[in-house]
Specification:
The protein is an alpha+beta fold. The protein contains 5 helices and 5 strands; from the N terminus they run H-H-H-H-H-E-E-E-E-E. Strand 1 (about 155-160) and strand 2 form a beta hairpin.
């Protein structure tokens, strides 16, 4: 795409990391896109990836584990760091879940042999099915990453359940493999949507 320039002005490209807070990944991404579109000197922008860091308290705990004194954005206050250090007391041995687990181990030893035989009989079938499902998922995720890298224009057919279906032209902005969640940009409506991977019936370039 050609952008209007003049002899007095040049065009520059920057790679930046931007930390945005929001109720969800989609809400934060939409806020970022709206912010970038408001400035007349920003000619174009492309979202390469996105990830959830959690709350500032969770970020402080992660920094403490890795002996980091400052966050990547240098905006983590000492108050949040102190709160994180005060909430990392290990109470696992005194928790109700730990006591319940101990009781179950004591009372369930009689049927351990029967369960072991049953699990051994079912294990080959479950293993083969799991391997086939994992292979299909890896193929789909590889295809998604290729579409993201190439910035392909796709048509997705979505099934939301209860007879609700959608067909939309879009570009995939990013894919969260841990949650199997896609963020897509609807090229006609200029809106960002999020879909679960299992809602996609078909995708064609």
């Amino acid at each position: 795409m050609l952008y209007p320039t003049s002899s007095q002005r040049s065009v520059f490209k920057f790679n930046v990391d931007i930390l945005v807070q929001g109720e969800s990944n989609v809400a934060a991404l939409e806020a970022l896109l709206q912010l970038l579109q408001q400035h007349p000197d920003i000619l174009d922008a492309r979202v390469q990836s996105g990830s959830e860091l959690g709350s500032l308290l969770e970020l402080a705990e992660a920094m403490q584990q890795h002996n980091m004194k400052q966050s990547p954005f240098d905006k983590l206050t000492q108050t949040h760091a102190a709160q994180a250090s005060s909430t990392t007391v290990d109470t696992r041995m005194d928790s109700p879940a730990a006591r319940t687990h101990s009781k179950k181990n004591a009372t369930g030893s009689g049927s351990t042999a029967d369960k072991a035989l049953q699990n051994a009989a079912n294990e080959p079938k479950q293993t083969n099915k799991q391997q086939a499902d994992d292979a299909r998922l890896q193929d789909v995720e590889k295809q998604l990453r290729n579409y993201i890298d190439q910035n392909c224009l796709l048509r997705l057919r979505i099934n939301k359940g209860k007879g609700i279906t959608m067909s939309l032209p879009c570009r995939i902005l990013n894919y969260d493999a841990s949650n199997q969640l896609l963020n897509v940009y609807h090229v006609d409506e200029k809106q960002v949507y999020a879909f679960n991977l299992n809602e996609i019936e078909d995708m064609q370039p």
